[in-house]
Backbone:
C-alpha cells in the first residue's frame, strides 16, 4: 500500500507527519534523526509489503554510497525510539524489512492558505493593535523571526545596558563599515554527507549559514524564496538542494554562486570540503578543504574555511576580520547543544521547544537558543514565556557575533522593553552594517507603522520588498503602510503584486477589504469576505466584516457577525479571542450609542489582557464604568517605563476617557500631550480631543481634530469613528454659526449611513439635531 509523499499517518498511538517531519506518540514528540525519520516514513508509506534493503538505501540516500551496516544501525535506533512498539519493524531474512503495524492515512480538514516557508507574517485584528510579526513556516523553518506581540512587557528596565550595547554596536560599525559595495548573493546547497552519521545531514549546513550571516557582503537566498522557486520548478518545496537543483534555483533568482560542501569520515577524522561554483556557467570558483580531528572539532574547522571562502568570493580582509566570531565563541562551544538547536530550527514552533530547552540544558549560556525559544513561544502566543526567554538571551548576548547581537537586542527592545523609539534606532544601526538583511527592513517598517510614522514605514517597506520580492511579509508590511497613509491605489497595487505571485495571505486580503469598505465597493467587499471561508483566518475576516457593518450603522448585522467571529475563534482554540470580540463589540456599541451593552461587554474582559484590556477599558470609561478603567491603568503601570505605547499612548488615553466621563474636559489636552507624537497610529487621540473641545465650547479646535480623522481615512477604514467624524464636524460648525457647512456635514454623515438601522441612538440624535438646524428661526 503506497501512500502520499507529504501526508499524515497513524499507527497504534503514533502519528507521523511527513510535512512537518514529526513523529508524535500520544501527542508527545519522539526524537528522531533526519535519516531515521526518512527510513520510518518510507516503511510506513509502504506498509504491508517487504521493502528490499537496496530499495530502502536508494530512497533514503539517493545520491550517496552508504554501506548496509548504516541502514542496520538506523533500523536498530528506530526500534529503540519506538520502544515497546519497535517490533512493528520486522526483519525479513534475505529480503529486507516490513512495517507490520496497521497504518491509516489521515486526511485533515483543508488547512488555511499557507505562507511560504520562512516568511514573516503580520497578524493584525483590524490593524488597530500592535502587530505580531513572526516567521511563519509550512514545513521546516529556520526561525529567523521577530514576533512583535500585542501584549506588553516585563516590569523592569536596564537603561545602562541599553546605552552600552548601542554604543558598542556603533563602535563596531565605525571600525568595520566601508563604502557600500554590491552584495554577493549565494544559494546554499545541502551538504553531501558521506560520513555515515546522520547528524551531519543538517548540522553543517546550519553552521555554515550561521557563519555566513555575520558577513555584511554576502547574503544567502531566503528559505521562502527557495521554496517558492522550487514550486515554480514543479518540485516539492521541501526537496533536497543537490548542486544541480541549487544551480537552477540560483539562476532563476539572479544570484551569483552556489555554495555547497561534503563531509567524509576517515578513521576518527572528518574531511570537510566547501565548493563554490558560478550560477550561470557552472564553473568552479573556489574549493577549500580541511580536516577535523574528531567530531567536536568539525564546527571549528568548518568556520575556518568558511572565513577563507568569504575572502575568495570577494569580501575584503577588513570586513572578514571585523565580522568573524568563531561559532564556538559566538553561538555555543557544545557540539551536542548545537545539534539540539539545529533540530529545533527544523521544526514548527510547538515541536521546536523541547529541542531548544535541551540545547539550553546542555549549554546554559547558549544565547541564541534562548532567543529562538522566545520566537517559538511568541509564535504560539505565549508572550510571557517569550519575553522571559528574550530577556535571558539579552543577558547572555555579549559573546555572540555582531549579527546575533543585533537580533537579540532588537527583540529585547521591541518585545521586553517595548521601546519603539530605541528599537527603530537599533534597526537603523543594524541596516548600516547589514543593508541586505532579508527581514530587517520589514520589521523596521512595521515599527514605524506602529508609531504612526508612515513616510518612514513606506521607505523601509519598499527597501525590504526590493531585497526579497518573494517574501509575503514584505507585501503585507508595505501595503499596510500605504493604506495607513491613505495611499489606497498604491496599497492595492502592492496587494495585487502579491496575489499575482501567489504569495498572498490574510493580511493582504484584509487590507483590500478595508479599502473596499472605504470606497463602498460592495463586490470587492464580498470577494474579500469569501476569500478564506473554511480557513483558520476566517474568524478575523468576520471580525473585519462586523466592524464594516458597524461603520455603516448596521448594528444588528454587526452583532451577528461578531457572534460568528467568536464561534469561529473558539473553533480555532484561540484562548483570548472571546475577550477580543467582547472588546470589539463593546467599541462598536459605544460608538453607535448602545451604551449599556457596550459597558457590559467591556467589563467581561480581564484587566490583564494587555491591549484587549486597554480597548475594553476605554469603552468602559466612556460608558460610565471608570472603576474598571482605573484597574486596567493600575495593571498597565506595571509595564516598563520605556514601554512606548503603554506609557505614552494607552495610559493617557484611558486617563482622558475618565476625565471626559467626569466632565473634566479641560484636562484632556494636557493628558494627551505625550501621545501627540504617535497620534497618527489610529484615530483615538483625534476623537477624544474633538469630544473634549466640543464640551469646552472650543469649536474651532474640535473641528480641526475631526478634520484630521477625515483627512486620514486609512488609519482605520472599518471604524465608525470615520463617519462619526462628519457628525462631530457638523456639531462644531453649528457651534461656530456656520449653518450651511454644518448642514453639509450632517448630510455627508447621513449619506454614509444610508443603510443604517433606523433605531440606532446616534442616528436618531443626529436626525433631531439636523431638523433643528434646518428649522426656520422663530
Residues:
Amino acid at each position: 500500500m503506497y501512500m502520499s509523499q507529504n501526508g499524515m499517518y497513524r499507527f497504534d498511538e503514533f502519528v507521523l507527519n511527513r510535512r512537518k517531519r514529526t513523529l508524535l506518540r500520544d501527542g508527545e514528540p519522539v526524537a528522531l534523526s533526519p535519516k531515521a525519520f526518512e527510513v520510518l516514513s518510507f516503511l510506513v508509506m509502504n506498509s504491508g509489503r517487504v521493502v528490499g534493503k537496496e530499495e530502502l538505501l536508494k530512497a533514503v540516500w539517493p545520491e550517496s554510497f552508504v554501506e548496509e551496516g548504516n541502514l542496520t544501525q538506523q533500523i536498530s535506533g528506530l526500534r529503540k525510539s519506538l520502544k515497546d512498539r519497535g517490533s512493528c519493524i520486522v526483519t525479513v531474512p534475505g529480503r529486507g524489512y516490513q512495517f507490520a503495524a496497521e497504518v491509516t492515512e489521515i486526511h485533515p480538514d483543508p488547512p488555511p492558505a499557507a505562507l511560504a516557508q520562512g516568511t514573516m507574517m503580520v497578524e493584525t485584528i483590524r490593524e488597530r493593535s500592535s502587530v505580531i510579526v513572526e516567521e511563519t513556516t509550512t514545513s521546516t523553518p529556520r526561525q529567523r523571526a521577530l514576533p512583535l506581540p500585542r501584549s506588553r512587557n516585563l516590569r523592569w528596565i536596564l537603561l545602562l545596558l541599553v546605552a552600552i550595547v548601542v554604543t558598542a554596536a556603533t563602535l563596531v560599525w565605525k571600525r568595520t563599515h566601508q563604502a557600500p559595495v554590491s552584495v554577493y548573493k549565494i544559494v546554499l546547497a545541502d551538504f553531501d554527507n558521506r560520513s555515515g552519521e546522520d547528524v551531519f545531514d543538517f548540522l553543517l549546513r546550519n553552521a555554515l549559514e550561521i557563519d555566513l550571516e555575520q558577513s555584511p557582503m554576502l547574503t544567502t537566498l531566503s528559505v521562502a524564496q527557495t521554496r517558492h522557486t522550487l514550486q515554480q520548478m514543479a518540485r516539492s518545496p521541501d526537496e533536497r538542494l543537490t548542486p544541480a537543483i541549487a544551480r537552477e534555483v540560483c539562476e532563476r533568482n539572479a544570484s551569483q554562486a552556489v555554495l555547497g560542501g561534503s563531509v567524509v569520515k576517515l578513521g576518527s577524522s572528518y574531511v570537510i570540503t566547501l565548493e563554490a561554483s558560478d550560477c550561470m556557467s557552472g564553473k568552479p570558483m573556489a574549493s577549500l578543504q580541511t580536516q577535523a580531528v574528531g567530531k567536536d572539532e568539525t564546527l571549528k574547522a568548518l568556520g575556518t574555511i568558511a572565513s577563507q571562502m568569504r575572502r575568495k568570493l570577494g569580501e575584503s580582509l577588513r570586513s572578514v576580520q571585523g565580522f568573524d566570531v568563531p561559532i564556538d565563541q559566538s553561538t555555543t562551544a557544545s557540539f551536542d547543544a548545537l545539534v539540539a538547536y539545529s533540530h529545533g530550527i527544523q521544526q514548527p514552533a510547538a515541536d521546536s521547544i523541547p529541542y531548544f530547552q535541551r540545547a539550553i540544558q546542555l549549554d546554559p549560556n547558549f544565547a541564541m537558543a534562548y532567543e529562538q525559544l522566545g520566537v517559538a513561544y511568541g509564535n504560539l502566543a505565549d508572550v510571557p514565556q517569550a519575553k522571559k526567554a528574550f530577556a535571558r538571551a539579552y543577558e547572555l548576548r555579549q559573546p555572540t557575533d555582531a549579527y546575533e547581537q543585533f537580533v537579540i537586542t532588537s527583540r529585547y527592545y521591541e518585545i521586553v522593553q517595548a521601546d519603539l523609539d530605541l528599537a527603530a534606532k537599533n534597526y537603523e544601526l543594524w541596516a548600516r552594517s547589514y543593508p541586505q538583511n532579508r527581514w530587517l527592513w520589514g520589521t523596521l517598517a512595521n515599527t514605524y507603522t506602529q508609531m504612526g510614522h508612515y513616510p518612514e514605514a513606506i521607505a523601509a517597506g519598499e527597501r525590504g520588498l526590493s531585497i526579497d520580492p518573494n517574501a509575503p511579509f514584505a507585501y503585507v508590511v508595505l501595503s499596510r503602510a500605504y493604506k495607513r497613509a491613505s495611499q489606497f491605489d498604491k496599497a492595492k497595487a502592492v496587494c495585487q503584486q502579491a496575489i499575482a505571485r501567489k504569495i498572498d495571505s490574510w493580511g493582504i486580503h484584509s487590507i483590500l477589504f478595508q479599502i473596499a469598505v472605504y470606497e463602498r465597493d460592495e463586490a470587492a467587499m464580498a470577494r474579500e469576505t469569501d476569500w478564506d471561508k473554511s480557513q483558520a483566518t476566517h474568524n478575523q475576516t468576520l471580525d473585519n466584516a462586523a466592524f464594516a457593518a458597524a461603520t455603516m450603522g448596521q448594528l444588528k448585522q454587526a452583532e451577528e457577525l461578531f457572534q460568528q467571529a467568536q464561534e469561529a475563534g473558539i473553533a480555532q482554540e484561540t484562548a483570548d479571542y472571546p475577550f477580543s470580540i467582547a472588546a470589539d463589540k463593546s467599541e462598536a456599541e459605544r460608538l453607535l450609542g448602545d451604551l449599556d451593552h457596550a459597558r457590559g461587554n467591556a467589563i467581561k474582559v480581564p484587566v490583564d489582557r494587555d491591549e484587549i484590556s486597554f480597548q475594553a477599558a476605554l469603552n468602559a470609561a466612556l460608558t460610565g464604568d471608570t472603576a474598571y478603567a482605573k484597574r486596567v491603568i493600575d495593571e498597565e503601570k506595571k509595564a516598563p517605563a520605556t514601554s512606548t505605547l503603554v506609557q505614552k499612548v494607552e495610559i493617557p488615553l484611558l486617563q482622558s476617557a475618565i476625565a471626559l466621563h467626569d466632565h473634566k474636559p479641560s484636562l484632556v489636552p494636557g493628558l494627551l500631550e505625550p501621545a501627540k507624537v504617535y497620534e497618527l497610529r489610529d484615530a483615538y487621540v483625534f476623537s477624544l480631543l474633538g469630544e473634549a473641545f466640543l464640551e469646552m465650547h472650543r469649536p474651532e479646535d474640535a473641528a480641526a481634530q475631526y478634520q484630521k480623522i477625515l483627512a486620514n481615512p486609512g488609519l482605520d477604514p472599518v471604524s465608525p469613528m470615520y463617519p462619526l467624524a462628519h457628525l462631530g464636524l457638523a456639531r462644531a460648525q453649528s457651534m461656530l454659526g456656520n449653518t450651511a457647512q454644518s448642514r453639509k456635514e450632517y448630510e455627508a454623515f447621513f449619506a454614509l449611513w444610508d443603510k443604517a438601522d433606523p433605531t440606532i441612538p446616534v442616528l436618531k440624535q443626529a436626525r433631531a439635531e439636523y431638523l433643528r438646524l434646518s428649522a426656520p428661526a422663530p
Remarks:
- The first helix runs from residue 34 to 45.
- The radius of gyration is 29 Å.
